[in-house]
Write a structure and sequence with these properties.
Length: 134
C-alpha cells in the first residue's frame, strides 16, 4: 500500500472527496429529478452530515446513484465536459477485475489527472487509461 507524505494511505478508501466530485455531485443533484431526496437519503445512510464528509469512494457511489436518476427536462449538468462513456467505465472495471495489479496504475493515473474516480475522466483520458492497463 502506498502512503502520502503525511503518512495516510492514498487509496480511494482513505482519501476524502475531491473538489471536482463535490461540484459534480452538486450539478447532478440540481439537474436530476429527485436529486435532493436521493442525496439526503445517501448521506443519512452513510451517517454523514454533508457531502464534504464523504470519502472519494463514497462520492463515486453517490455520483453513480445520481447519474441513474432521470434528468430534469432542459437541464444540463454544468462543468463536466464529455465524461467517459458507460462502456469505457465498464471496460476499465473489467480490466481491473482481471488484473488486480493494474489498480496501482489506476490510482497513479487518477492522481496525476487530478481525478477522484473513473467516472470523472473525460473520454480521451479513459482511452488513455485503458491503453495503460491493458
Amino acid at each position: 500500500m502506498a502512503y502520502d507524505k503525511d503518512g495516510s494511505t492514498n487509496s480511494q478508501e482513505g482519501r476524502g472527496i475531491s473538489p471536482k466530485q463535490i461540484e459534480f455531485i452538486s450539478n447532478l443533484e440540481k439537474s436530476s429529478k429527485g436529486g435532493s431526496g436521493a442525496l439526503a437519503d445517501f448521506l443519512k445512510g452513510k451517517k454523514k452530515g454533508n457531502v464534504s464528509e464523504l470519502s472519494s469512494r463514497e462520492a463515486s457511489e453517490l455520483i453513480d446513484k445520481l447519474k441513474s436518476l432521470p434528468k430534469i427536462e432542459g437541464m444540463q449538468v454544468q462543468g463536466t465536459g464529455r465524461n467517459a462513456t458507460p462502456k469505457q467505465i465498464s471496460f476499465i472495471n473489467n480490466l481491473l477485475s482481471r488484473n488486480p495489479s493494474s489498480k496501482e496504475k489506476l490510482e497513479k493515473f487518477l492522481r496525476e489527472s487530478k481525478k477522484g474516480s473513473i467516472e470523472e475522466l473525460s473520454i480521451p483520458e479513459a482511452s488513455k487509461l485503458i491503453d495503460l492497463i491493458k
